[in-house]
Amino acid sequence: MDRGKRPSKSIVGGNNKIYMDLKDIIREYTLPFLPAKSLFRFTGVCRDWKMQISTPFFAHNQSNSFHAVSGLFYQIAGEPPSFISLDPKAYGVPDPSLKFLPVPVDIRASCNGLLCCQARTGDKAYYMCNPATKMWKKLPKPDADHGTDPALVVIFEPSLLNFVADYKLVCAFPSTDFDDGYEFEIYSSAEGCWRISREICLGDRKLLPSPGVHVNGIVYWQMKHGVLVAFDLARERSQLIYGMKGALCVMQGKLCSVSMHGWTVTVNVLSNVYSNTMEMHSKARTWVQKRLINLDPSALGAGSCKQPSVVFADSDTVVIHDGTTIFSYDMKSKETSALGSAVGTRLIAYVNNLVHV
Q1: Which of 3, 12, 89, 313 could cysteine-pair with 318, CB 3.0–4.6 Å?
Q2: High-pLDDT (> 90) share of the chain, %
Q3: The whole model's pTM is what?
């Protein structure tokens, strides 16, 4: 009878093996999908987890696994940057003002954990950094004059086969040879230098001071009156695209424009970049409506005197700014939340990962 009530040594040993296997599964297959802030907190769980999270291999694996936008850096002219989190418990950076950099900076662009900043004084050098780890690198001086508000786009696609962050920085700058033209200068981290493309994009509109985006090898910048500049990195050819409204974003691997009128958000996807060359009465359209989102006015503070606008969107979240407060709309739960106050004119989305610079 007693033997029937007591677990045998083999059963205890088996249970212990199951427990160890589960612990290993969590460590190997769950931790890499968590954001940097949560991982830093989990280093206090046990010595094994701390050692695992601290290795370069884990940082490489996590930067390939975690891609969710975690919040936005914003900045008022002349003041240090700040960070507003989509989920303060999960996402965050240790020094939102970026004082770990050697000089005061202005934020310029971001992609998959890398944040590009520019020194305010002196040679106004560019710095590439990861605010989560406080790692940074000063980039060489460009050959061209990028102007006082450079139109920069960071291109970084993490790869399991590349342990070093291989990224590009592309700048569209006013041509010195053509009054209404823009040229393109490209920095490659693999080559460690800048190169000016031979391509010149001619147009009678100016670029807007808003972040560009990169989709499937093509970089896009917004111009005035709903026009886009598109630059193909592989072919190094450019073209103008018309009919764009709102903010540029990427959803499910496609370029979209997201605009807001009243309390309705409209998502349009780029469908045909050659529609302006089609024959008359053609049904081809440059932009096709993909989705309509009706928001709750009370959740957005309907008493605001300024029409809210979309500042960022992806397949999971729409971020809205009414001039003083930032709101987020969850695509899945359809809930709207106030994230906090932000009066900065420049807002840049950031991914909270451990990528090495």
Answers
A1: 313
A2: 66
A3: 0.88
